[in-house]
């Protein structure tokens, strides 16, 4: 927790943290500040959405053939507009856009790439249920600093992320982020226009009594997963079972609760969808980095998420993450199911 009686704004926190980065030039801090501005704008629009009748679909589909909501489009455009002129990025990618989002020709190209899900939980927008923005930042790998980045800059394994985070538009807007030195949380005060530090160095509990999964998919689950969830529902006072089930249907909100209260979040691969539903680059990798930075574990059902080698920008990956003891226990059930394991070996194929 922050020092009693002190207010630490995100601006100050970013400035204080700058020295922790070996090659700190200030560019990374400016990048984060621009992103915070985009998040403030999205937060304002989310709060006003019901009032200005912004809800509804645009009639368009995104690159995955899913219906796009107006607020998704707005959030996507807001982040692009806030970030493309800053001079810190050499490219961007978004769950709502097809390929590399270029930096304009006349604008300086920077050393980083930004990947984001502008508004996660789109099925919840219309009904005032928590939604969020997820982001992931990598250092560019292409050598020519003056030129636009390429796919190699965007498609990097998760362990190379230099920062990851999310904004959650819930009862308050909160921002949770990491630059590889623990996880900090800020709460937005709309009257001040400031994010104020509310939790520093968040640690996920070693074990928690919540599990979070779409049980509507249970007919498709592999045996190991089915056995694990049945196990959680058995009565055993010594291990505090049965566990409570929680499922919002917004990955970032379900993972946030898991981070704060402990337990486990699962969007596994199953017989119908071997790679699950979530996107590796926009959802799974950033959420995995945050969970690990808070002392938790994030796997794709068997392997560490952050070690997965992506092949395409929009590929899906299963995600099982949360408190170390819970994930370890889930893994022991999954590993007992050889059929499920075989399938997970083939999970690198893009969706
Ligand atoms: P989105 O990016 O279009 O919002 O889709 C991803 C969302 C996740 O936030 C959430 O975990 C999942 O879809 C819920 O899916 P389901 O309805 O299959 O449980
Ligand atoms: Mg999403």
Please tell me about this protein's structure.
With 351 residues, this protein is α+β, with helices and mostly antiparallel strands. It folds into two domains: 10-199, 2-Layer Sandwich (Fructose-1,6-Bisphosphatase, Chain A, domain 1), CATH 3.30.540.10; 210-343, D-Maltodextrin-Binding Protein, domain 2, CATH 3.40.190. It has nine helices and 14 strands. The protein has helices at 10-17, 27-48, 70-83, 151-154, 223-233, 251-261, 280-293, 324-335, 338-345; strands at 57-61, 67-69, 89-94, 112-120, 131-139, 161-169, 173-178, 183-189, 194-199, 210-212, 244-245, 264-267, 297-299, 319-322. The strands form three sheets. A seven-stranded mixed β-sheet has the order 3-4-5-6-7-8-9, with helices on both faces. It has a five-stranded mixed β-sheet with strand order 11-10-12-14-13, with helices on both faces. Helix 5 links the parallel strand 10 and strand 11 (244-245). Helix 5 (223-233) crosses helix 8 (324-335). Bound molecules: 2,5-anhydro-1,6-di-O-phosphono-D-mannitol and magnesium ion. Residues 95, 117, 120, 283 line the site of magnesium ion.
Short description:
It is built from 9 helices and 14 strands.
Strand order of the largest sheet: 3-4-5-6-7-8-9
Rounded mean pLDDT score: 90
The helix content is 25-40%
**Shape assignment:** globular
> What is the ordering of alpha helices and beta strands?
HHEEHEEEHEEEEEHEHEHEEHH
Radius of gyration: 20 Å
Number of helices: 9
CATH architecture call of the largest domain: 2-Layer Sandwich
């Amino acid at each position: 927790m922050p020092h009693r009686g002190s207010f630490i704004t995100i601006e100050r926190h970013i400035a204080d943290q700058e020295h922790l980065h070996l090659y700190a030039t200030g560019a990374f801090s400016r990048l984060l500040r621009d992103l915070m501005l985009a998040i403030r704008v999205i937060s304002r629009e989310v709060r006003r959405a019901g009032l200005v009748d912004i809800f509804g679909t645009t009639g368009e589909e995104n690159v995955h053939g899913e219906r796009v909501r107006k607020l998704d489009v707005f959030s996507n455009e807001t982040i692009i507009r806030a970030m493309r002129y800053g001079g810190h990025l050499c490219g961007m990618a978004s769950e709502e856009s097809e390929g590399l989002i270029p930096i304009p020709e006349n604008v300086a190209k920077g050393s980083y790439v930004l990947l984001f899900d502008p508004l996660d939980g789109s099925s919840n927008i219309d009904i005032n249920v928590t939604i969020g923005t997820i982001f992931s930042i990598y250092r560019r790998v292409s050598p020519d600093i003056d030129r636009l980045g390429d796919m190699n800059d965007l498609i990097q394994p998760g362990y190379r992320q230099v920062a990851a985070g999310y904004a959650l538009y819930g009862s308050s807007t909160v921002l949770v982020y990491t630059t590889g030195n623990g996880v900090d949380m800020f709460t937005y005060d709309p009257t001040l226009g400031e994010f104020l530090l509310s939790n520093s160095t968040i640690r996920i509990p070693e074990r928690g009594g919540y599990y979070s999964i779409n049980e509507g998919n249970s007919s498709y689950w592999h045996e190991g997963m089915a056995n694990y969830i049945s196990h959680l529902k058995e009565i055993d006072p010594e291990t505090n079972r049965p566990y409570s089930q929680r499922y919002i249907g917004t990955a970032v909100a379900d993972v946030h609760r898991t981070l704060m209260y402990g337990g486990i979040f699962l969007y596994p691969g199953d017989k119908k969808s071997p790679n699950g539903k979530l996107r590796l680059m926009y959802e799974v990798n950033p959420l995995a980095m945050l969970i690990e930075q808070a002392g938790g574990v994030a796997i794709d059902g068997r392997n560490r998420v952050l070690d997965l080698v992506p092949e395409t920008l929009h590929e899906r990956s299963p995600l099982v993450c949360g408190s170390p003891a819970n994930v370890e226990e889930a893994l022991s059930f999954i590993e007992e199911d050889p059929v499920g394991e075989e399938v997970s070996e083939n999970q690198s194929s893009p969706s």
